[in-house]
Predict the structure.
Amino acid sequence: MKGDATVVARNYEENAVILPSNMPMVKGRAGIEKTMNGWLQSGMKMKEFTSTTISVEGAGEFAIQLGRYFQTYEMSGKVVADTGKFVTVWRMQADGSWKMAYDIWTTDIPASAVPPEPEAKKKK
């Protein structure tokens, strides 16, 4: 909420992977921090974020969390409300703490329609 990508990235393992909506996967804590800083530098300002865990299952050093999220953020002077779902794989660290190893989230907001192919291209 405070716009500190470093603090958020510390919740991920060194070799973690995130799979955000509508963009390529990002590998490694440094890459995750860089991606989050990019969002912040683009003018995105988080206003509200809540998550709800639906289930957690685990075995050994792994736990899998399924949930939903709600967030509002401001971008270019416009406030956007977004709901979505996520799956996070947590791994227990040597010190007994848990960090995210894999994290995927997808918005419920429909993607913009792909524009139709121009007629000139269809005829070729």
Observations:
- Residues 56 and 65 are 5 Å apart (CA to CA).
- Residues 5-108 form a domain with the Nuclear Transport Factor 2; Chain: A, fold (CATH 3.10.450.50).
- The chain has three helices and six strands.
